[in-house]
From TrEMBL:
Name under which the protein is recorded: FAD-binding PCMH-type domain-containing protein
Species assigned in the record: Gymnopilus dilepis
One Pfam family this sequence matches: FAD_binding_4
Single GO term (MF): FAD binding
Biased composition regions of type Basic and acidic residues, renumbered to the chain: 762-771
Keyword Signal: yes
Length: 1145
């Protein structure tokens, strides 16, 4: 951007946030990094610090130097702690800064006490980069310690991409290589040689222009002498007054040398790493790696025809001048003219390398006429080189630096130049601002570009003007004044945006809060390609910057996008706060937090309570999903003693871990639709969270937005004994059914297991709604069982009181102690109400959206949409025959008992028995709704014999309902929550129970782990299922036992200990897997690193169908979760907290 012949007023402010503060890293770790980079790790010191006496002593000589050069472009670029746009040295939200008064740098009010110099957003440390090894060391360090990285070259940055509080910066400013090659051939290419210049990342335009003259060549370069040729300028597009005739920077760059975040030093050109070459030519700086050098086409010297327009500024004259120049703008661009119009000065200048002097005067007749119309004059001249033009008109009139400044811009399409209203609005905006300018720098006349080779928005090529306006503020601006500058910018520029729908925006000089920035900067097609390339080269998402190509979004609380989302969902956008935060006095990076003793006591007392945890968004039952396992970032208590102060008192810090940054407390479909739209627009990862009963981590992700459906509480039941259920125009008499809201919970016993929640009612196939009763009480599944008992019905549901009936339990299969006789959850669900990622609220049942009904009955939660309610069969109440076995649980006895029980397991399952064998509780219990007491005792003779063989006892009971069985044997003995836990499981086929080696491996695995269990919950005796209607692995139907083992760790575990448990799990379960090839696995209770998970969870045939359905309803892949249908892979940054193990990644 260039400020032509104007005396300009003040600039602006903002805060970029990082993943973790540099303060959270130990000094010895920084020292190690310093040694690795040869002592070139430096502290980031604010430019103006020598002028302040707090916190460091005042330095007179250095202060005078800073004051006299405060607005000098090159001086600022030579100092790491300086940015040309000075709000990026500050924290705009808090006002922390170290600025001088840019209107009078000697003003003592800015720097004398009580003023203090504060770090603001200046990186805490930086590496003075000299080569690729420095960059690789920084990547390794950032990945290990989760320190945010930024890349800084010259500090010419309007968006704040090169600064961040608590970050580590890679400073490439001193890479000063500059070489001319008269016969350059890109490495690996077989093309004719050409003249080219290779420039290190630190080479700036003030040097480039002198070099071009000395070597008699033309290099297309920008207008700010402090900007670098090889940095963000070229990677963002790179405009110049020569661009209309000779192209943008991206059109002329031939090769890059770059270190990508995967640790590789790469040569990038049209013959190798072509995808990266596409990305670097328009995808933006600070995103795909650290460019160390680039090579650009050096054309023969050009003679320039120049036209200079001068006029007296008045607002009326300026408006008339803009409108007059707009009349010939398209023709001027087509003829190859490039230049700068500065309305506030009344002046403009253009250059043309294509025309001779006669043709130039003919071509620029519209300019002459426009200036004459406002009483101005025009002068034509011929110049020997672009450097002469730069020195005469640009170098001495660059836009001011050293002040906070906010800008908005637009690339005005050629089709808009007949719209007088647009240019009136543009003039009003510019003249009402502190600064406005029109840059004729688009590549309109340049046609020799690679149609598919650059990633800039294609609309850049059909635009004619790059129009820009901005506001300034000063060091003493209040937060309100800073925010108002942004708001004023938005209001003033809104009419220009409204009249140029779909227009491009130059990302290097854009509004910080540019709406729909992905389309404005790149266009949707390019952006999707760029995202794929980003995933490939930055698998751990080490590089992130504001409104860059990004797999996670930034989270500024002041962002209009977030505020708009919050308004859309009626204020129910909430911050995701880690469950135990009230116990901590320090947050990540050492930030203070005020503990809440009352809340902390409640958390400590209920830390292992399923339902209490499900009521808190920031809590997960399996607590490693509250953490980042790779870094140890967490906010956990000691689950063995929740009062242990070492877990939460200093130096312990509460860190966000994998708890989503924000969540929407969902009350209906519009909330979900708003979230899908927001995620698509802003590339924010989405997760769906219900109760937090999650062994795989599908409902958590660092830097994500969650949809919390926990409070969608509703239950309805027909008031008549039986319901007339219309199906395919036939009226049939069926069992009752209950409709549940997703917030309803179910109960699960002694074993880990996801279960059911209540939902609503069907629409098309239901009887009159007056037949239903609706309840909206926030009750868990124990209440569901009570509800079923009170209404004399039986609901098939699971064993954990903290699990929901309508969420992942049902969609993953949904087992129960009743499943052997009455089927799985997927066999009993009649209908779902769901918002699919394409933004539609749908009813899915066997009569409509039948493909989706198939997918939701086994395809898994968090994948095909957000289920808001489901309807399930409610059978008549059943009498339960139960058998309880007790014994002395020594290791030897437990192994012997499991082997003995295996002998009658297939027969028991065939007779309809379901239950739980739990060595840790020295017991086992089964239930059967099909047999009378006499038949039950005959059927369970094998159980009696097995317990007798280990000196145990068995007792038979008759119970009036499954609710009574649940309350007696399951609810008091649910598995523990509130601890990190890894498990592995297997659905053991009926034909494997004569394999003694297998049964021995199961017994040893279950007994010798921290917690193991065998669940007799498969639908072995149930034959009323639709053979093609559910998407679970068919192996479920012929399996007898769901066997699992698991290990725990605590808050103070190391990464190696955590990885060790994953690996131990793999080793312990290896024989079981080997002896059951092709067996199914219940993916709600599975190994995180389950090998061949697709076949294990669904089977190949079902998965192919599911993938097609996924693509249909989620075309933009807004929902992704670990080992789900359509999973994008571990390289996605949302999975960066999953540790690398011998079994995993």
């Amino acid at each position: 951007m260039l400020a032509m012949f104007s005396s300009l007023a003040p600039p602006l402010l903002f805060l970029a946030t990082g993943l973790a503060s540099a303060k959270g890293v130990r000094s010895q770790d920084w020292n190690t990094l310093n040694r690795t980079v040869g002592g070139r790790l430096q502290v980031g010191v604010p430019l103006a610090q020598p002028c302040f006496s707090r916190p460091t002593p005042y330095n007179v000589a250095q202060c005078l130097d800073v004051q006299s050069n405060y607005a000098d472009h090159v001086y600022r670029s030579d100092n790491f702690g300086a940015y040309e746009i000075a709000q990026w040295e500050t924290c705009q939200t808090t006002g922390d800064d170290c600025l001088l008064d840019w209107t009078n740098t000697s003003n003592p009010a800015a720097f004398l006490p009580p003023s203090q110099c504060k770090q603001g957003s200046i990186p805490s440390y930086y590496i003075d980069v000299t080569g690729p090894n420095d960059v690789i060391a920084a990547y390794n360090f950032a990945n290990q310690y989760q320190v945010p990285l930024v890349i800084k070259n010259t500090g010419h940055d309007y968006i704040g991409r090169s600064s961040a509080p608590g970050s580590l910066a890679l400073w490439t400013h001193n890479l000063d290589k500059l070489v001319l090659n008269n016969s350059f051939v890109p490495e690996g290419c077989s093309v004719p040689p050409t003249t080219a210049v290779t420039a290190g990342a630190g080479q700036q335009f003030n040097n480039i222009f002198g070099f071009a003259v000395a070597n008699n060549v033309t290099i297309v370069s920008g207008a700010d002498p402090g900007v670098g040729l090889s940095g963000g300028w070229v990677m963002g597009g790179g405009h110049s007054a020569l661009s209309p005739a000779l192209g943008l920077g991206v059109d002329r760059v031939l090769q890059f040398k770059i270190v990508t975040p995967d640790g590789q030093y790469r040569t990038v050109n049209k013959c190798q790493n072509q995808d990266l070459f596409f990305a670097l030519r328009g995808g933006g700086g600070g995103t795909f790696g650290v460019v160390l050098e680039s090579t650009h086409l050096a054309s023969p010297p050009v003679t320039l025809q120049v036209v200079l327009g001068l006029s007296t500024f008045t607002p009326a004259n300026a408006t008339k001048l803009i409108q007059g120049l707009a009349a010939s703008a398209v023709q001027m661009a087509a003829d190859g003219w490039g230049g700068y119009i500065t309305p506030s000065s009344g002046n403009a200048v253009w250059a043309n390398p294509l025309l001779d002097s006669t043709a130039a005067q003919e071509s620029a007749a519209g300019v002459v006429e426009a200036f004459a119309a406002v009483g101005g004059t025009t002068v034509f001249m011929t110049m020997d080189s672009y450097t002469d033009f730069f020195n005469a008109f640009i170098a001495s009139n660059t836009d001011p630096v050293g002040r906070p400044q906010v800008v908005a811009s637009r690339l005005i399409p050629d089709t808009s130049f007949g719209n007088d209203s647009l240019f009136e609005d543009m003039a009003n905006a510019m003249l009402g601002a502190d600064f406005g300018q029109i840059l004729a720098v688009t590549p309109y006349a340049f046609k020799d570009y690679d149609r598919n080779g650059t990633s800039i928005n294609p609309a850049f090529r059909t635009a004619v003007w790059h129009s820009i306006m901005g506001y300034y503020w000063n060091y003493n601006a209040t937060s309100t004044q800073r925010v108002n500058a942004y708001k004023q910018l938005e209001q003033q520029w809104a009419p220009v945006r409204a009249q140029t729908p779909g227009a491009a925006v130059y990302q290097n000089e854009a509004d910080v809060y540019e709406p729909d920035y992905t389309n404005a900067f790149w266009g949707s097609d390019n952006y999707n390609k760029l995202l794929s390339i980003k995933r490939k080269y930055d698998p751990h998402h080490l590089l992130d910057c504001w409104h860059c190509v990004s797999l996670t979004a930034a989270w500024p609380g002041s962002s209009p996008d977030w505020n708009s989302l919050n308004q859309t969902v009626s204020g129910r956008l909430q911050a995701g706060v880690p469950f135990s935060q009230p116990c901590f006095s320090r947050l990540g990076g050492g930030a203070p937090n005020t503990p809440d003793p009352a809340q902390c006591s409640a958390i400590q007392a209920n830390y292992a309570d399923h339902v209490f945890r499900s009521d808190h968004f920031g809590a997960y039952e399996i607590t490693q999903w509250e953490t980042c396992q790779t870094t140890g970032d967490e906010c956990l208590l000691d689950w063995t003693n929740t009062s242990n102060p070492k877990a939460f008192q200093p130096p312990a810090q509460c860190r966000q871990g994998s708890v989503p940054n924000y969540y929407i407390d969902v009350t209906g479909p519009n909330d979900v639709i708003a979230a899908f739209s927001f995620s698509k627009k802003n590339s924010v990862p989405l997760v769906v969270k219900n109760t937090g009963h999650d062994y795989i981590g599908r409902s958590a992700a660092p830097g994500s937005l969650a949809l919390w459906v926990r409070n969608n509480l509703m239950i309805r039941l027909p008031l008549t004994e039986l319901l007339l259920f219309r199906n395919d125009r036939r009226t049939t008499l069926t069992s009752l059914f209950i409709c549940f809201g997703t917030g309803y919970l179910m109960n699960h016993t002694v074993g880990p297991e996801p279960q059911l929640r209540p939902k609503r009612v069907p629409t098309r196939d239901e009887a009159d709604d007056s037949h239903y009763r609706r309840e909206q009480a926030g009750q868990q599944f124990e209440a569901i069982y009570s509800f079923a008992g009170a209404n004399n019905v039986t609901v098939v549901a699971g064993a954990d009181p903290g699990v929901g009936i309508s969420g992942g339990w049902a969609m993953g299969g949904g087992h129960s102690g009743l499943s052997p006789s009455l089927g799985l959850g997927v066999d009993r669900v009649l209908e779902f109400k769901i918002v699919t990622p394409d933004g539609q609220y749908r009813t899915a049942n066997k009569c409509q959206n039948t493909d989706l009904f198939f997918a939701l009955r086994g395809g898994g939660g968090g994948t095909f949409g957000v289920v808001l309610e489901s309807t399930h069969i409610a059978s008549p109440q059943v009498t339960i025959q139960a058998v309880l076995g007790l014994y002395n649980a020594t290791q030897e006895n437990s192994i012997k008992l499991i082997k003995a029980l295996a002998k009658s397991a297939v027969q028991l399952a065939g007779d309809g028995w379901g239950g739980y064998i739990t060595p840790a509780l020295a017991s086992a219990v089964w239930a059967n709704p099909l047999l009378n007491s006499t038949a039950a005792q005959q059927s369970a003779a094998g159980v009696v014999e097995a317990f007798a063989s280990v000196g145990g006892s068995t007792t038979f009971f008759t119970m009036d309902s499954y609710t009574e069985f649940f309350d007696t044997f399951i609810a008091p003995n649910t598995d523990s929550s509130g601890r990190p836990q890894v498990l592995a499981s297997r659905l053991i086929p009926s034909n494997k129970f004569t394999d003694d080696t297998l049964i021995d491996a199961i017994a040893n695995g279950v007994v010798n782990s921290d917690f193991g269990q065998i669940l007799a919950v498969t639908p072995f005796a149930y034959k009323g299922f639709d053979p093609n209607g559910t998407s679970i692995n068919p192996g479920w139907r012929t399996a007898v036992w769901h066997s699992l083992l698991s290990y725990y760790w605590n808050y103070d575990s190391t990464l190696s200990q955590r990885v060790g448990l994953y690996n131990k799990l793999e080793q312990q379960w290896a024989v079981v897997r080997q002896r059951t090839p092709g067996a199914a696995v219940y993916f709600n209770e599975a190994d995180v690193y389950e090998p061949n998970y697709i076949d294990a969870y669904w089977g190949a045939s079902n998965y192919a169908k599911l993938l097609s359905i996924k693509q249909k309803y989620d075309p933009n892949h807004l929902l992704d979760c670990w080992h789900c249908v359509g999973w994008k892979g571990a390289q996605d940054p949302r999975y960066k907290c999953y540790p690398n193990t011998t079994a995993g990644h």
